[in-house]
Amino acid sequence: MSPSASKAILITGCSTGIGRATAQRLARAGRTVYATARSVDAIADLERDGCKLLALDVCDEASMTAAVRAIESAEGAVGALVNNAGYSQSGPIEDVPIDLVRKQFETNVFGLVRLTQLVLPGMRAQRDGRIVNISSMGANFTFPGGGYYHATKYALEAISDALRFEVAGFGVKVVVIQPGLIKTNFGERAVAELPEAQGDGPYAGFTEKVAQATRDVYEEGAMAKLGSGPDSVAKVIEKAIDADKPKARYRVTPSAHAMIALRAVTPDRGWDAIMRGQFPQPGKS
Ligand code: NDP
């Protein structure tokens, strides 16, 4: 690795939550940070922390290309990419309109893949780079009503595993972060994305319960106390960027460790029984 290799960090989804906390933490530590969001207005204040700002929508090819070009012309290459932008398109598998399913994959998976493809030539040329993909504890188990979101995180993990092998020889390291429950706008958006519960529809009671369970976990219930703030993830992202030999996966929060361990030792029928204790099963009165 050349000492002159670019260490500039590109982060997606910095308007709120984990992306914002990561941009602030790294910029305040004196790093070169390109904070990005769909709307630059939403991140204008990050300039005071020392961030450079760019518009970037992970569903828009032109904005991704322009952002990567801007960084490459200023820095030579993107040194580290933090693929953070994402949301949960919650809802029953049968009920979520297919265009919204496509949008979910477009944002959480294809956007991440495309941006990775765009930064890799620069990283390979300088034989140094790091790609940090924000997955979830939910890449290890699935809650009913969250099938599509979990599917995107499982997909991201498979892609990261393949990529880690494929680019290691070029000096590029790939890391996956698996946060547990983090208090951000995530829960509110997941509830907002639920398909409207039809009063007499087959999933009405179920969808309402998914909304309530999400609110309980993120905002109101006893579970919400288990949640950590976004800086707990930002700290681990910093470690993943800085470590000479980063781990392939970092789990963040006690809830992530506990839930992943529980699922690993629970047979599928046992898991379904636990879920029946949490959610009304559609089709059963
Ligand atoms: P937030 O809702 O606070 O932040 C999500 C960010 O993603 C926002 O900045 C949002 O921007 C951005 N985003 C959404 N769509 C796009 C798009 N098309 N292009 C660019 N940016 C976009 O949630 P979190 O900070 O919690 O989520 C960050 C990541 O962490 C996600 O990948 C999520 O899956 C993951 N995660 C979160 C957990 C949690 O408990 N909070 C747990 C495990 C993983 P905008 O304001 O424009 O919508």
Looking at how many chains there are and whether they match, the oligomeric state comes to: single chain
Shape summary:
globular
Number of helices: 9
Hetero ligands: NADPH dihydro-nicotinamide-adenine-dinucleotide phosphate
Instruction: State the separation between the terminal residues, measured CA to CA.
Output: 63 Å
Radius of gyration: 19 Å
Helical residues, percent:
40-55%
Structural class of the secondary elements? alpha/beta
**Mean pLDDT, as a whole number?**
96
Largest sheet: 7 strands, parallel
* Order of neighbouring strands in the sheet with most strands: 3-2-1-4-5-6-7
Low-confidence stretches: none
- CATH overall fold name: Rossmann fold
Please identify which CATH superfamily we are dealing with: NAD(P)-binding Rossmann-like Domain
Overall domain count: 1
Order of helices and strands: EHEEHEHEHEHHHEHH
CATH architecture field? 3-Layer(aba) Sandwich
Task: Quickly name the level 1 CATH class.
Answer: Alpha Beta
Strand percentage: 5-15%
Overall strand count: 7
Family: Belongs to the short-chain dehydrogenases/reductases (SDR) family.
Protein name: SDR family NAD(P)-dependent oxidoreductase
Keywords: Oxidoreductase
InterPro entries: KR_dom, NAD(P)-bd_dom_sf, SDR_fam
Write up this protein.
With 285 residues, this protein is of the alpha/beta class. The chain has a single domain, classed as Rossmann fold, CATH 3.40.50.720. The protein is built from 9 helices and 7 strands, in the order βαββαβαβαβαααβαα. It has a 7-stranded parallel β-sheet, with helices on both faces. Strand 4 (80-83), helix 3 (98-126) and strand 5 form a beta-alpha-beta unit. The protein is globular and about 65 Å long. The relative contact order is 0.14. The model has no long low-confidence stretch (mean pLDDT 96). It binds NADPH dihydro-nicotinamide-adenine-dinucleotide phosphate (NDP). Keywords: Oxidoreductase. InterPro entries: KR_dom, NAD(P)-bd_dom_sf, SDR_fam. Residues 7-185 form the Ketoreductase domain.
